[in-house]
């Protein structure tokens, strides 16, 4: 699905304004950091730009450790104060409740607490290391080309997979009674779920698709059914509101059908018993992957960073096989190789990961020290709730791909059509066959075609505003003729 170039340009202007302001704020940044170090000789040692944040390494001539100050990039991050404060609180929680190596939070504050005018900030200890993804990546690849090295040493892969398994096991031990983001009661010192979930998908719907904060607004949820229903509704909202969410009339029919079928199959994948749907919920991070894990020269994990977009979620999310086993996003591989081609690559790596995860679980039960993932949290889980068993089941019943499709609003169509549709509804030759079979009832056809006309009008208006000429009418008639041909 294309991005909304008009919305992107608007947010890109905000980013440029912020970068310009930041370039003139070195002294102000040092003054802010000096306040917490209680010194006056802060130096900006290096700068680091990420997808959603901009950071500086801070140094003092006092023989102490370096710090890092990080700001969310205005124009890239849509929930500035909420994101920074939520991440700082979560990092404190993880350091207290788990054995996961997380940088120590020194200070954090909302935008109105930062005299530099650069917005909210978080200061944490600097951790030296390289990204685990750099070790796993195909030789010669770049950070924009995340491809697992097909010739990676098996012992290295097993070690890194094992350490990631340990991190996921620690998170699996944490239970929550609601779905949402953690907050810290400064008075009592208690951590509680009182904030709505802030997700990567929501951030991108606003930034790249032109949706507003109201359309993507959320709340704290008490059941998995409620939350997943809200995500399915958000997918329909996105299709409706992004003016260029379709390419043409035929594409619109396919996307319209996809969202109806996602809702139709949902109860096949969501636990509906009262004791399952109402928790306990598990901590889940949309962006927890090797790219946000630092390792030392011995390839041992030294820090897990970038905990933004983390929230207590349905256990099914955390209990699904991780998407990052091939480094690249599944929908990109599906787009290149098709569903069967993706599974051909993915399943052997999934089996390798599950073997080391099972070994970790056994070692924890026996009390054997294995580094990350041992000792601080709760139990590994009874046989029915073991993380490895949940993940194996998620591959067998394809709930892993349903959970992924629900979360990834931009890519739901690729995931659904290539990994879920035939599993749920039986074989088909073409997507168009399913579209025709599902949406040709009189009332459904009327609603569908009314929606198609509205979307084509939206698309035409979008291109006019963008100043681009495109033959939208031909696309409409082509789509209608196809359906007439099929009906005859």
From TrEMBL:
Residues 55-315 form the Aminoglycoside phosphotransferase domain. Pfam families: APH (PF01636). This is Aminoglycoside phosphotransferase domain-containing protein. InterPro entries: AGP_Transferase, Aminoglycoside_PTrfase, Kinase-like_dom_sf. It comes from Aspergillus heteromorphus CBS 117.55.
